Amino acid sequence: MNLVGIVLRFLYEVFYVYYLLMIVVILLGWTPLFRTGFYRFLSKITGVYLDHFTGKLIYRAVDFTPILGLILFRVLLYVIETSLF
Questions:
Q1: Alpha-carbon span 20 to 79, nearest angstrom
Q2: CA distances (Å), 84 to each of 14, 41, 61, 79, in order?
Q3: Whole-Å CA distances, 51 to 15, 48, 57, 70
Q4: Is 56 within the bounds of a domain?
């Protein structure tokens, strides 16, 4: 495997963990656990990306724009993954 492949593989793994953390933050935001320090910590980490999508598509009391952010991030992961193989 060449250097570009190694770097892409590393980026894919890091982005995939970040993707999973975003899912955890979104799910915890719908529970009473969003008041915990763990949630605030994860929210600061994932807020770098998810804050760009917050508050743009709200229906009643539910904000659906983080889901749009997840979908776009997953597309990025798919592009990296297909370039690896």
A1: 17
A2: 14, 32, 40, 9
A3: 17, 6, 13, 12
A4: yes
pLDDT digits (tens, 9 = 90+) for 25-41: 989 988 998 899 999 99
Number of domains in the chain: 1
Residue among 29, 79, 84 nearest 53 (CA): 29
* Proportion of the chain above pLDDT 90, given as a percent: 53
Return phi, psi of residue 44, to 5°: -65, -40
In a domain, 68, yes or no: yes
Question: Mean pLDDT across the stretch 65-75?
Answer: 92
Give this prediction's pTM.
0.85
Q: Please say whether the beta carbons of 43 and 21 come within 8 A.
A: no
Copy the structure tokens of residue 34: 């969003």
Q: Name the band, by pLDDT with cuts 50, 70 and 90, for residue 55.
A: confident
